[in-house]
Amino acid sequence: MLKILRESLLNAPIVHRGKYHYFIHPISDGVPRLEPELLEEVTEHILGMVSKDFDKIIAIEAMGIPLATAISMKTGVPFCIIRKRQYGLEGEIKLSQETGYSKGELYINDIFEGDRVLIVDDVISTGGTLVALMSALEGVGATVTDAIVVIERGDGVSRLKEMGIDVKTLVRIDVTEKGVSIEDIHE
Length: 187
Ligand SMILES: O=P(O)(O)OC[C@H]1O[C@H](OP(=O)(O)OP(=O)(O)O)[C@H](O)[C@@H]1O
Ligand code: HPA
Known about the structure:
Homodimer. It is found in: Cytoplasm. The protein is an alpha/beta fold. The protein has helices at residues 3-10, 26-29, 36-49, 65-75, 128-140, 156-162; strands at 14-17, 20-23, 56-60, 79-82, 93-98, 103-108, 116-124, 143-152, 168-176, 179-185. The model has no long low-confidence stretch (mean pLDDT 97). The chain binds 1-O-pyrophosphono-5-O-phosphono-alpha-D-ribofuranose and hypoxanthine (HPA).
């Protein structure tokens, strides 16, 4: 299972973003090209791991979007994108996002009290993005039915666990300047 994901990760090139070893992969970058077979493998696997009682899918710009699109088309549930752009609509919520290599703002629109949301994203690393998003959703009064991320590296998942938040992932990797190694993969 997850054969295409496994092999593509082992072949991922590494570049430096400051001190951060950044792997480049179709799921996390759209580079090299994202083959439909990989997207199908990953999204089918996600649907086997989450409960089905969500009424909105939330994706974080940019690389949560292909995952959310595929899941939306398979389930008939709409998706909302947490954008890096401000719209200024009433009720818009601003989040500060900090990752291992970047800082910026994210904006939530069209999520309300009582919504049951599935969060999907491509990578979790420091967990900074999901910590900020989860606390904003709690403030709104939305229920997160599952938070699922394809690729896990670093200590983000354990950081969220200490806060009482479970994040599911398909694969855990280690990244050095030599490349990616697989520490654990969901079967
Ligand atoms: O766990 P963290 O350290 O917060 O890192 C994870 C975030 O980093 C990436 O986002 P990025 O801003 O690079 O966006 P992209 O999807 O446009 O590549 C990824 O898509 C996550 O949202
Ligand atoms: O190393 C990475 N590669 C791609 N996307 C990412 N998002 C956080 N870390 C990474």
